[in-house]
């Protein structure tokens, strides 16, 4: 079976306090936790009702705290070369993870960071999974310059522009697709924003209930909740470590 190229397949949170992160995200999103630690490398899995969707790692000295999305590619080494040729950077070089696959961590020309992976598993990504509780339902990039970022990722992963939305003072919002399915949006970040970054919208059982659980556990609201085109409800928040995340539900 040929490897897929371009879908998001994993989401990893690196924390200075993994126990606190687990105690926050598991009840907020409805995940359960399981251990996948290796000698000298503690690691836990965030599980949705139908299986693992992400991992929880411990922050290393000099490492980067927060959420990291993984995109599946046919060849990690060829994608690294294409990234650098297009003006992107290499944050962590290609490496093999025994029993998992080969990966690297890249940055786009504006500095936003993503991981790439060619997994050993032949399990295939399907867009229906994005609509399931506990999974990531939307991927949003706040770029240094939205048009430049889209051109970069389109060349790297084959993403296509589904349509654009004029957001007035907020600029152009580009909805991008993977194999004909809308999976996210990109826009130029607002003046005063600290840095370009990817934000991930996790599916929950109701925006009010889930954001209430988050607030009770120390999260702060950035924007929302509000309804978006298509009928869903979203809220953007900062977790207790000050890391951005977002929630998505078809129910208010």
Automatic annotation (TrEMBL):
CDD domains: SgaA_N_like (cd07247). InterPro entries: Anthracycline_SecMetBiosynth, Glyas_Bleomycin-R_OHBP_Dase, Glyas_Fos-R_dOase_dom, VOC_core. This is VOC domain-containing protein. Residues 7-119, 132-250 form the VOC domain.
């Amino acid at each position: 079976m040929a490897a897929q190229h371009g879908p998001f397949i994993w989401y990893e949170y690196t924390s200075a306090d993994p126990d606190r992160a687990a105690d926050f995200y598991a009840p907020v999103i409805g995940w359960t936790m399981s251990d996948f630690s290796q000698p000298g490398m503690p690691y836990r899995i965030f599980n949705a009702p139908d299986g693992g969707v992400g991992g929880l790692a411990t922050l290393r000295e000099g490492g980067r705290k927060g959420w990291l999305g993984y995109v599946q590619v046919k060849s990690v080494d060829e994608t690294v070369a294409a990234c650098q040729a297009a003006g992107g950077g290499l944050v962590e070089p290609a490496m093999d993870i025994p029993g998992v696959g080969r990966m690297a961590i890249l940055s786009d020309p504006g500095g936003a960071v993503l991981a790439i992976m060619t997994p050993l598993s032949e399990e295939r990504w399907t867009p229906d999974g994005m609509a399931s509780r506990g999974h990531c339902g939307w991927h949003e990039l706040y770029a240094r310059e939205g048009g430049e970022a889209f051109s970069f990722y389109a060349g790297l992963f084959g993403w296509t522009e589904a349509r654009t939305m004029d957001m007035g003072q907020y600029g152009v919002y580009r909805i991008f697709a993977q194999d004909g399915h809308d999976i996210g949006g990109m826009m130029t970040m607002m003046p005063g924003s600290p840095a370009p970054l990817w934000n991930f919208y996790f599916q929950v059982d109701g925006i009010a209930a889930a954001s209430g659980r988050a607030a009770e556990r120390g999260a702060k609201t950035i924007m929302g909740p509000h309804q978006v085109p298509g009928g869903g409800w979203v809220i953007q928040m900062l977790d207790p470590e000050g890391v951005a995340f977002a929630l998505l539900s078809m129910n208010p």
